[in-house]
Amino acid sequence: MAEVLDADEVDNRVPEGWEREDDEIVRVYEFDDYLKGVSFAQSVGEVAEEEFHHPTITIRYEEVEVRLTSHEEGGITEKDIRLAGLFDDEF
């Protein structure tokens, strides 16, 4: 089981563009059109499946919101921080 990071650790280590909201880290990615966002969400899903760590993904007209937390551990862990960076690589 991974160790939950405290608020300062999260704030210092979360990738640029991500924000801490309670026990999740969140980023909204913006796109020129809906289908580009859908394609990005598909890429995020593929990475998440490979890592076996699944975010909440919300697709809107020109944006995709991604939320990460480690439910079993009860907060944000190194796994969430790492996965956020991998999602940014897909963007």
Write up what this structure looks like.
- Helix content is 42%, strand content 22%.
- The N and C termini lie far apart (29 Å).
- The chain has a single domain (7-90), classed as 2-Layer Sandwich (Gyrase A, domain 2), CATH 3.30.1360.
- α2 (34-51) crosses α3 (78-90).
- By secondary structure, it is of the alpha+beta class.
- It is globular.
- The chain has a 4-stranded antiparallel β-sheet with strand order 1-2-4-3.
- The chain has 3 helices and 4 strands; from the N terminus they run αββαββα.
Largest sheet: 4 strands, antiparallel
Query: How are the strands of the biggest sheet laid out side by side?
Result: 1-2-4-3
Radius of gyration: 13 Å
Q: What portion of the residues fall into strands of 2 or more residues? A: 15-25%
CATH class: Alpha Beta
Q: What would you call the shape?
A: globular
Report the uncertain regions. Answer: none
**In total, how many beta strands?**
4
Named at the architecture level, the CATH assignment is: 2-Layer Sandwich
The end-to-end span amounts to 29 Å
How many alpha or pi helices?
3
Catalytic activity: (4aS,6R)-4a-hydroxy-L-erythro-5,6,7,8-tetrahydrobiopterin = (6R)-L-erythro-6,7-dihydrobiopterin + H2O
GO molecular function, one term: 4-alpha-hydroxytetrahydrobiopterin dehydratase activity
Family: Belongs to the pterin-4-alpha-carbinolamine dehydratase family.
Organism: Halobium salinum
SSE order and pairing:
Layout: H1 7-13, E1 19-21, E2 24-30, H2 34-51, E3 56-59, E4 63-68, H3 78-90
Antiparallel strand pairs: 1-2, 2-4, 3-4
